[in-house]
């Protein structure tokens, strides 16, 4: 047993993030931790990585007591982690990010040639499609995720933790990661894997531990369980349907379009895009990351400018030159990159939810109606089942899935006529996905026109009335 956790708990004030956690990880195997958002997975991983200190319990690594005081202690002991949320510096190169704080030096000065050479050897060995001298800020989200993985694997480790490593990767890029995991197993490295993609879990895992509400539930070998059993264990109830049915029929083809896009073009990113969506319709867009689908949605929202083509809303040609224009036309946009584009992580849950709809809570002389603002935010927290200690909790302190729900809540508060959902369930567990799907169905039933963008084909098929690729 390379890593063993016994009765580990963690309190934040009076809130128990972990109540009683057990884990036994064997060398040369992939051990998946499965649980809903807020189940305690990230807290446990941060304890292992030395970010948090446990409130109780014991941990051993390689048979010796393990109690890292900081991430450097964890790395020295032989444990490294690749976090779901990127920790890269966009103004530095790929090489500088990979070897940050461990740069090769000569006479006390960084040896740039050795830095590039070392990083290039690692990138080549991992077969990553990036150039080590490129600035990270110029890379796509998927390429940045691969750099984050390379950074985590640039040190020798007995245990490697991968937290939602494929959430931003296309199928081909995910295959590169799966090959890396196979190499790690062959070397006898233990891999702790966190993912919400059930097919991926069943493909990679040797052992699967289920956690719920900060408590250890059970551990199964992959050959001893099924997806259906794991979902039931994770959410504490049976999930008979992944995609909730429509309560209201989809609008007929003869219904007028709310949004009509004709010949939209941005050279080098997308060409001659043509589609329309009706009130109450869910129009799905399927394509791999990097296919141009997100660029189209950013253009519709005014973040980018098209070279040619027209956009019509309710039959009238409109010019959307900025996000403000889009909001004025009652367009909402749940971006795929919640951390950098969807949230102000240092601000509270309440502030993040209400920030776009502040005009609705302006009283005389421009003063906010704080009570109305708070009540509206509380309603959205309840409707989307956002797990937070309070409305004052900073958005950055919540799990990735709960952060995604906050982004969705922010736009629901504006009552959009057209809602763009770009990877709305990225990094979201099965139970939370079902809740988000129900909200999408409800919005469509109320007449919202929805553009649903996803790299998961089952999601597009299961939720869309029509689809484009």
Describe this structure in words.
- By secondary structure, the chain is of the alpha/beta class.
- The protein folds into 2 domains: 3-235, P-loop containing nucleotide triphosphate hydrolases (Rossmann fold, 3-Layer(aba) Sandwich), CATH 3.40.50; 257-468, Rossmann fold, CATH 3.40.50.
- Helices cover 33% and strands 25% of the residues.
- It has helices at residues 41-48, 71-77, 94-98, 112-126, 141-152, 171-186, 198-204, 227-235, 293-300, 323-328, 338-342, 349-354, 370-383, 400-412, 430-445, 457-463; strands at 3-12, 15-25, 30-34, 56-61, 64-65, 79-82, 105-106, 109-110, 159-163, 190-194, 207-212, 215-221, 257-266, 270-278, 282-286, 308-313, 316-318, 331-334, 418-422, 449-454, 466-468.
- The strands form 5 sheets. The protein has a 6-stranded mixed β-sheet, sandwiched between helices. A 5-stranded parallel β-sheet has the order 18-19-20-15-21, sandwiched between helices. The protein has a 4-stranded antiparallel β-sheet with strand order 2-1-4-5, with no helix packed on it.
- It starts with a strand and ends with a strand.
- 44% of the residues are buried.
